[in-house]
Amino acid sequence: MSDLFANWHHLSFSGDGWGWNLLRGLASTLQIALGAYALGLFIGLFGALGKLNGSVLTRWLLEIYTTLIRAVPELVLILLLYYAGTSAINQVLDMLGYRPIDISGLVAGIVVLGVVQGAYATEVLRGAMLAVPKGQVEAAAAFGMSPWTILRRITLPAMLPFALPGLSNLWLIVTKDTALLAVVGFSELALTTRQAAGTTRAYFMFFMVAACLYLCVTLVSNALFRYLEKRSRRGQPELN
Length: 240
Hints:
This protein has nine helices and no strands. The protein has helices at 2-6, 19-53, 56-71, 74-95, 105-131, 134-142, 147-177, 189-200, 203-232.
């Protein structure tokens, strides 16, 4: 225990302390998580609409996408999409006569995790849309609303209370999945923590600090999603 307290100076924000590095790693983690979450919601929204209202081919392709993504471990998907995806893009560019491009780790991390999130968000949003009473949609159509207007004014607001618990879980999952990007060398909180622990040999302290930072993100996120869920259920009966 005395060794633990003796290592606290490694967390300082001056000299050879790792305080700023850990905060930058946390900022990178949140940046990737927010980008991937937004991309996943975008994919999930159109994926859910495609599964519910698309053609037979569209529904079939989306079913393959969601099944494959949810069946394969995230670490394998990250390695596959990061390396194979980058290689495939450069091969296509080479065939078209363009120079290969160097995709930044930030963009690659957001896209890879966003594709993974999209499969899960598709099912969460599809289930929420199915929970919306059909009478509301039929009434809107009877008033002459366009499909886009019905989606924007009826379906999305009505499905939000049903979707938020699942979307909250997806956000917490993506904040933790960012740690998997350490295997491809992207410097987020997990990799920064490992580097700090390896340099100072204060493994227990640094990984405990990282765990506390992830916990803080979770607690703040839970409070925010509870607030959003409470607002989205205004005027509805309280749930026990």
